[in-house]
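ARCHIVE CARD
Drawer: 12
Card no.: 0347
Subject: one protein chain, sequence and derived structure
Cross-reference: see card 0346
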Amino acid sequence: MTKKRFFSLILLLLFLVPNISLGTLDFKIEIDIKESFSIGGIISFNYSIISDEDATVKYIPTVVCPKGPAGFLSVKSIGLQKDVLYSNNYQFIKVDESVEPQTCTAYLEILEPFSQRVEKQFEIKTKPSFDIQIFSCKDESCAEKSKVFVKGEKAYLDYDSEVPEPAVTGKLTAPDNSTKELTLPANVSLDQIGKYILKTEAKKEGYKDDVQTLELVVLEEEPKVINKRICNANKICEPERGENYQNCPQDCPLPVLKPSRSPFFWFVVVLGVITGILIGSIIYFLLKKRKRI
C-alpha cells in the first residue's frame, strides 16, 4: 500500500467515524389537544412518540398558563423500540369559575438523550372578572364619602365600576338584624345605633359575578372633633402647647386629684404632735432627776 492510498483511507475513516458515532436517532412527537376548554371541561391532551432507533428517553409533559394555575412537572422515563409508537395522556385541571380566560400552551419536551420540544396552544374560555367599588356618602353629590353616620341621617349608597352599567343589588342588615333589599344607587335612612352591614352582588352578562361587603357605623351624636392645632397626638402631654385632658385625651391622661384633708384630720395631727412633745419632756425630766439621785 502506497503512502497516498494510506492517507486516503485515513481521511475516509475520519469522515465516517462522526457519522457512525452520531447515528441517525430521531423522534417524531405528536400532541393532540382541543382548541378550547370552557367551564366544566377537563384540560388534557394525548401525546405520542416514535423513534427510528431503540432508545431510552426522559421527557416532561405539562401545561403553562400565564394567569395560572401552574402545571405539575414530572420527569418520565421510557424505553422506546425502533418504529414502535408510544402514546399516553396528560391531565391538567378541571376548569371552574376561578380560572381566568387566557391562552395556554401544552407541550412535551424530551430531555434525554437530546433536547427536543413540541407544543400547541389552546384557549380557556371563561367569564372574566371585573372590579367594582361600593361606597357610602352623606348625600347624592358624594362630596363627602363616609362610613360613619349619626342616628337619623341618610346614607347614599353607590358604586364605581370599570364595566359600564352592571346590575348591582344588595341586602342591608340593621343592628336589630332586620333586612332591606336594595338596588344601587340608593338612599337609606339609618334609624338605629350600631353597625349596618351591606352585602352587594354585581352582575354583568359575559362577566363573573362580584360580591362585596360594606359596613356602616351609626352613632347617637356627632363625635367630638379634636382641635389638631392644639393636639398633635404624639403621645406626649405638652401643656406649653395648651394640651390638656379635655382637648387632647390621646396625649394627656386624666389628672389624679389628691384627696382633701378634713379639719378633724389636722386636729388629730396637732394633738399627736403635742402628745409626743409632752411624753418626750416627761421622759427627759425623769431621767435627769434619776441621775441626781
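Annotation on reverse: The chain is about 15% helix and 40% strand. The mean pLDDT is 85.
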